[in-house]
Amino acid sequence: MDTNRAGPAAVELSGLVKTFRSPGGELVRAVDGVDLTISPGEVVAFLGPNGAGKTTALDMVLGLTTPSAGTVAVFGAAPRQAVRAGRISAVLQTGGLLRDITVRETVQMIASTLPEHAGVEEVIDRAGLTSLARRKVSKCSGGEQQRLRFALALLPDPDLLVLDEPTAGM
Questions:
Q1: In which domain, by residue range, is 71 found?
Q2: What's the pLDDT tens digit per position in 45-95?
Q3: Sign for the pseudo-dihedral over CA of 128, 63, 38, 113
Q4: Which of 52, 85, 118 marks a domain boundary?
Q5: Is residue 75 located within the same domain as residue 93?
Q6: Contact by Cβ (8 Å): 2, 118
Q7: Global pTM?
Q8: Cβ(10)–Cβ(74) below 8 Å
Q9: How far is the C-alpha of 165 from the C-alpha of 49, rounded, in Å?
Q10: Which residue in 36, 85, 87, 129 is a FRET match for 61, CA 20 to 30 A apart?
Q11: What tens digit of pLDDT does each residue of 91-118 get?
């Protein structure tokens, strides 16, 4: 991950709000007016109890959900632009993996969809999956599958890596 690029903040959140309607129709404010600037190279952790809005905030940073109010910029661009450009990648709490192919085949398949990427063997090694590379994903433990998700997130060699519950299943 190259942290020496000049330019805008890695993440800029301004007045970030996300509201939902509960099943009973009540308005729930999951994220309430967050202002945050994260500089390139900085390590930041969102801490709080379950239901505090951490994942919702990260989903907005990744462009997976739209804020109800406020703005999100990732390296000066809209989150989805930053994702498409390979500047941001994520390891989410869960995520679909194809169970009937091997760990290496999974990494190779995702790499084939990227215009530029780190080496397949490099990310397998960095994620500690070398000894599991020939194992079918369905035969991997929850922790091993989470390490596979980590390897996939490393493929685009992102400038920003978002980890949401990265030790889930470990």
A1: 11-85
A2: 989 888 899 999 999 999 999 999 999 999 999 999 998 888 999 988 777
A3: positive
A4: 85
A5: no
A6: no
A7: 0.80
A8: yes
A9: 12
A10: 129
A11: 887 778 999 999 999 999 999 988 889 9
